[in-house]
Amino acid sequence: MRHPGLVALCIGGTVFLAGCQGSTDAQVQRAVKDVNVIDESNLNDIMLTIGDPNEAVNYFQGALQKDPGRVDLMRGLAKSLVRANKPHEAAQVWEKVAAHTEGTADDKVMLADAQIRSNQWDKAKATLGTVPPTHETFDRYRLEAMIADSEKNWKKADSFYEIASGLTTKPSGVLNNWGFSRLTRKDYAGAERLFIQALTYDPAMFTAKNNLVMARAAQRKYDLPVIEMTQSERAELLYTAALSAIKQGDIAVGKGLLQQAVDTHPQHFEAAARSLAALDSNVKL
Asked: Which domain holds residue 234?
C-alpha cells in the first residue's frame, strides 16, 4: 500500500537535504582552506626553528615557486639562508623583502644583519641609515654597536651596547660581544665584568667563559673564576689560561696549567698534551 504523504515528505526532505548539502560543502571548503592556512603557518614556523636549515631553504624556495612574491615566504627563505650559513644569499633575499610593498623597518634591520654576516659593513651601515630613528629595537642597536666597533668608535659602541642590553630579557650575547670589544681595547677589567654579567644570564655560554678566562689571564689572574663548568669545560679553560700565560712569558705557570688541563680532561686532551710535550722539548709554541 502506497502512502502519498510519506513519499511527499521524503521528496521534500531530499530537497531540503540537498539544499543543506550545498551550504555544507561551501562551509567545508572554507573550513578546509582555513585549516590549510593554519597548517602552512605552523609548518613555516617549524621550518624556521627545529627544521634542518638546508631543508628549510628548499621548502621556502619550493613554496615561492608556487606562490612567488609572498613576503612571508621570502622572509622565511632569508632567515633559513642565514641559519644555513649562506649570509650573502640571505642578503639578496632580504633586499627584495625590504623593497617589497609590505616591507618593514625590521626587514631593513635583518638586511643589515645579513650584510654584516657576509662582511658587507659599508652596505650594512648604509642600510641602517635608512631605518627611522624611532625604530628602537634590540637588533637595531646590537648591529649599530657592531658597526661602531668596526670603526673603533668606542664611545658610540659603548652607548649602543648599553641600549641594546636594556632592550632584551636575554642580553647574554650582546654583553659577551661588548666584553670582547673591551678585550680588544685592552680594557681587561672592564671586559671581565661584562663577561661575568653575561654568564649571570646564561651560565652555560662557553664562549663567555673562555673570554672571561682570557680577560683574567691578560691581568695575570690565572686561577679559574668561580663559575659553573663541566669537567671538559674546566680542562678547556685551563688550556686557555695556559696559552695566555705562555704568551706573556709566564712559562712555568703555563706548564703547570697545561698539566692540570691534561689531568682534568675526562678523555685524552690531545691539544694540551701536544703543547706540554713541546714545552718539555723546548719547542716554541
From this structure: 229-285
